[in-house]
Design goal:
By secondary structure, this protein is an alpha/beta fold. The chain is built from 8 helices and 7 strands. It starts with a strand and ends with a strand. The model has no long low-confidence stretch (mean pLDDT about 90).
């Protein structure tokens, strides 16, 4: 049961990435794969910056760019049998006020982990999804920055780290 970081999907989609074949193989062979709304947002961001590709696909499908991004993401979810899971508990009361729970948890672990914001959010989603009984035991990523928090993931969350080299 794995949480799939956006970087592994992006690597699979980019034929110029030397890891593309291995990333695709992982996505095809791994059985239970979870993504979060953060993964969907990051995919939308990556796709929106691929202007020529997006325009070509939009023209072929007869859709505008926004609907084309959604269509591509839906295709990727089905193609790789990804399971989108949202967070049920929406907000958390903090000294700063009510904050969206994944962000609040990411803020709490920021001082411990020293990662970029999006990486902190992925860890927050893993933690929260596990608390909501999602059987995640592995983080699959192509992002080497996660190597710095491998011990934290294993000791505090029971998550094995799998980094595509």
């Amino acid at each position: 049961m794995s949480y799939v970081d956006t970087s592994i999907i992006v690597a699979a989609l980019d034929p110029s990435d030397s890891r593309s074949r291995d990333a695709t193989k992982i996505l095809e062979e791994e059985t239970y794969k979870v993504i979060s709304e953060l993964t969907i947002l990051e995919l939308a961001s990556v796709l929106s910056r691929k202007w020529k590709l997006l325009s070509d696909i939009a023209d072929r499908l007869g859709l505008d760019r926004g609907l084309t991004i959604i269509a591509i993401i839906l295709y990727l979810i089905r193609r790789f049998n990804l399971r989108y899971r949202g967070i049920k508990t929406q907000s958390k009361t903090t000294p700063l006020g009510r904050i969206y729970k994944p962000i609040a948890d990411a803020v709490e672990i920021a001082s411990t982990l020293n990662l970029r914001a999006l990486d902190l959010l992925h860890i927050s989603y893993i933690k929260l999804l596990r608390e909501e009984d999602e059987p995640i035991h592995k983080l699959i990523t192509a992002d080497k920055d996660f190597q710095t928090v491998k011990d934290y993931l294993e000791k505090n969350l029971g998550i094995h780290l799998s980094i595509l080299e």
